[in-house]
Design a protein that fits this description.
homodimer; alpha/beta; seven-stranded mixed beta sheet; 9 helices; 45% helix; DNA-binding
DNA sequence: GGATGTGAATGCATTCACAGCA
DNA sequence: TGCTGTGAATGCATTCACATCC
């Protein structure tokens, strides 16, 4: 559902309001900073329950709690990360994950030369230890940041190790069982979408 | 439009076919590996023109050329990158961009300690040199990988320097003029969407 | 009055069914 | 027969208009 994505946006915005000491917000106030309409905010929220108070708005603390519960971030999720190249190492160190309740509990690489090296507070493990680590930690989420030609194999290994949600940074589509959730972040494609829009905007080609 | 995103997928898949020496593909064959339907492929392509041959399919080389033209990747786009933390450095070194026709021609950071350090083949420049570099190179695309609280300021500087397309990795919404295209990649949100779906899938919370 | 929540109407994307061409 | 291209039908998301409650 499309609303779920926006729920995350609302949560961010609400956290800002909370920091600023704001106690209640109207749908209008919540929407403007995000470039949305007030109706859309209300429709999105109403879909999941009745959180607002007519004439008053939404209580910030309360709504944050509800949204976290809906999004599943009212608890800490343990995450394993496969592939410690430039991007993988950056993701392992990314503080934004921790801030939203995701804790990376294991980093892995197929390259023996990388095994044993430290990435942040963790030591790179060989792929053979994947199942052991997921079993020990109970991790259910995995991040793939390996080259495209290895991604499917890694995905299979993750699924075999009990991972049920995969965030994929490899530039390829993954085949996964129905009980596994996959979400791809394709960086080059994002730039292509940008240039598509730019073509109809920019006249001078800079040549 | 939603089809544009899939055009990029088709282009990837077609490139694979091309490597394998395949000369023509049907919409069905093009769709299966991507988990789509044949009708969707045909509708998407037909929206931009008549590229197929009834009874035959699509000529791989020809369609690749057309898609690149549509997406604007039939030429090289020069890109500047702002923010050389972990993520920024990884993006600067990311080979996938180069492969799709994006060339990073300048990397910048606000931190004086980072200025002068090398990232791949480039040297980190101070923000003051942004306009000069965009003017010299004709770059029209910028990547923002700075902390959220600095993102808007950087976006303003990019726009002032003539950048017309922004790929934003900061965890915040940007306000940009109408003649500037913005595209946000929010990593933490992607994980949140994953956990939302996982909640209705995973019963044992691993506790 | 000020705000939420929601049925009705609109618009967009996808799927279905099939005409038409090689 | 095999495959593309496309009008018609469906389904989903968004917007509009308004009933309702503090």
């Amino acid at each position: 559902m499309a609303a779920v994505f926006r729920l995350s946006l609302y949560l961010r915005e609400l956290t800002e309001f909370q920091k600023a000491g704001v106690k209640t917000v109207s749908s209008l106030r919540l929407s403007t900073g995000l470039g949305l309409t007030d109706v859309r905010v209300r429709k999105d929220l109403a879909y999941f329950g009745q959180f607002g108070y007519p004439g008053v708005g939404y209580r910030v603390d309360e709504l944050i709690t509800e949204l976290k519960r809906i999004l599943g971030t009212d608890r800490v999720w343990d995450v394993v990360l496969i592939g410690c190249g430039n991007l993988g190492s950056a993701l392992a160190a990314y503080k934004g994950f921790r801030r939203q309740g995701f804790r990376i509990v294991g980093v892995f690489d197929i390259d023996p030369k990388k095994v044993g090296r430290r990435v942040g507070e963790l030591t790179i493990q060989p792929m053979e230890e994947l199942s052991k680590t997921t079993a020990r930690t109970g991790a259910r989420v995995g991040i793939i940041s390996v080259p495209a030609d290895q991604a499917q194999k890694v995905a299979d290994q993750l699924v075999a190790a009990g991972i049920r949600g995969i965030l994929n940074f490899a530039c390829t589509a993954l085949a996964t069982p129905a009980n596994v959730v996959e979400n791809s972040v394709n960086l080059a494609i994002r730039l292509e979408q940008l240039t598509f829009q730019l073509r109809s905007l920019v006249q001078d080609s800079g040549a």
